[in-house]
């Protein structure tokens, strides 16, 4: 986490945002929307501040938010965590991940996660003293169309009695994969056989374009060993508010709360009722948010293809992965550092999210964020066409 001179080593997302800021390039690196989310949600936060919701909320979260999270899970997934004991509000999904891993991973415990791996996972597992074992997602044409999928045998081999947690991320950052039901079933089977916990990061749960998101907690036998994590940041375009949550059986959530009370203690008072208002928005809002983003995905994917990249269109989320090798760039690390000069655009090298030993498969891949205005995506596409 620290560089050899003792300085904080910035995350790849912070580094790439700084590169965009210093060069004036269009920032398609870090994933955050450039437009505000629903007016009702913004207004609810203003109202809460005006009404004096500005002091420490309860550590477990305000009742209004916990009840909205529970209602939301009943409406969309048919499960209803008890708002009093099975729902915990956190400072974004990031704190939920941190508190969960610090609570349940001890020195030497293994955590299995899919690769490419969201950057916080490796850092948090290491802070907890655990060992991250990754299972690669491969771009595969098998099954229902092209998608990023794990090889079931590689997953089987990775999970052993040393595994404390299987850390799932679906929809997946950076590939945009929505894990298939058979993969989720296999995860539950392996976790049960080896008595591991399942921790699932589902922050892109509503931003699905192709396929259906199935929360792993809803599968038979999963609930009692699963901590599910999500956040209002993506669903309501409020990434800076950092309102997230963890849900699961009371005994598991209690352990997460025990750690959370010494991380942030409590968080985000006026934003909690605002995210609650968002979770109660009608179905049409959620459908519209996904449809709007799907159009942006198509715009940027087309632009990247016209510019000469090979593209794997995501099923969900904020990002599209593009292979720069058809343009003659075989090393995405170097390509991304030169991209502001070459084309006035910033992307993230997928290599940054991959174990050094596994670099070959992902070497020339770049992650571009498309959660941006149409004019920004059109301008970026035009600039990228200069590459060929
Ligand atoms: N998990 C994944 C997979 C993410 O993409 C993100 C945000 N980029 C987070 C967690 C963090 O979410 P939050 O901002 O709510 O902490
Ligand atoms: N999750 C966002 C991304 O993947 C960024 C969050 C961060 O910068 N840590 O780009």
Q: Catalogue the unreliable spans.
A: none
Tally of strands: 14
The small molecules bound here are: 4'-deoxy-4'-aminopyridoxal-5'-phosphate, glutamine
- Helix proportion of residues, in percent? 40-55%
Proportion of residues in β-strands: 15-25%
Determine the CATH topology of the largest domain.
Aspartate Aminotransferase, domain 2
Q: What is the CATH first-level class name of the largest domain?
A: Alpha Beta
Number of helices, where a helix is a run of at least 4 consecutive DSSP H or I residues: 14
Q: How large is the radius of gyration?
A: 20 Å
Number of domains: 2
The CATH architecture term of the largest domain is: 3-Layer(aba) Sandwich
Question: For the terminal residues, how far apart are their CA atoms?
Answer: 37 Å
| Global geometry | globular
Which strand order spans the largest sheet, edge to edge or round the barrel? 2-9-8-7-6-3-4-5
- Largest sheet geometry: 8 strands, mixed
Structural class comes to alpha/beta
> Can you say what the CATH homologous superfamily of the largest domain is?
Type I PLP-dependent aspartate aminotransferase-like (Major domain)
Order of helices and strands: HEHHEHEHEEHEHEEHEHHHEEHEEHEH
Q: Mean of residue pLDDT?
A: 96
């Amino acid at each position: 986490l620290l560089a050899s001179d003792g300085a904080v080593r910035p995350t790849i997302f912070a580094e790439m945002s700084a590169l965009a800021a210093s060069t004036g390039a269009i920032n398609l690196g870090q994933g955050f929307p450039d437009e505000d989310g629903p007016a009702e949600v913004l207004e609810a936060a203003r109202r809460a501040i005006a009404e004096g919701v500005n002091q420490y909320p309860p550590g477990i979260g305000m009742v209004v938010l916990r009840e909205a999270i529970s209602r939301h899970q009943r409406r969309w997934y048919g499960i209803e965590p008890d708002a009093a004991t099975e729902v915990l509000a956190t400072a974004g999904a990031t704190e939920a991940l941190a508190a969960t891993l610090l609570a349940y991973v001890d020195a030497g415990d293994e955590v299995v996660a899919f690769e490419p791996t969201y950057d916080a996972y490796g850092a948090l597992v290491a802070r907890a003293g655990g060992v991250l074992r990754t299972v690669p997602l491969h771009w595969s044409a098998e099954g229902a169309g092209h998608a990023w999928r794990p090889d079931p045998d590689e997953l089987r081999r990775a999970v052993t009695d040393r595994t404390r947690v299987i850390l799932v991320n679906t929809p997946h950052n950076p590939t945009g994969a929505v894990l298939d039901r058979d993969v989720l079933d296999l995860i539950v089977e392996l976790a049960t056989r080896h008595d591991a916990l399942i921790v699932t990061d589902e922050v892109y749960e509503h931003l699905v374009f192709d396929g259906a998101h199935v929360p792993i907690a809803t599968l038979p036998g999963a609930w009692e060993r699963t901590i599910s994590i999500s956040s209002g940041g993506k669903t309501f375009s409020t990434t800076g508010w950092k309102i997230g949550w963890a849900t699961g059986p009371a005994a598991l959530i209690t352990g997460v709360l025990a750690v959370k009370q010494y991380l942030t203690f409590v968080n985000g008072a006026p934003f909690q009722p605002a995210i609650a208002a968002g979770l109660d928005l009608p179905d049409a809002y959620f459908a519209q948010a996904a449809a709007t983003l799907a159009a942006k995905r198509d715009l940027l994917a087309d632009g990247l293809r016209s510019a000469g990249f090979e593209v794997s269109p995501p099923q969900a989320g904020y990002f599209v992965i593009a292979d720069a090798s058809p343009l003659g760039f075989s090393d995405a690390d170097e390509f991304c550092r030169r991209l502001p000069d070459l084309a006035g655009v910033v992307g993230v090298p997928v290599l940054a999210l991959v174990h050094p030993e596994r670099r070959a498969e992902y070497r020339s891949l770049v992650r571009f964020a498309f959660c941006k205005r149409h004019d920004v995506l059109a301008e970026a596409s035009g600039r990228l066409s200069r590459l060929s």
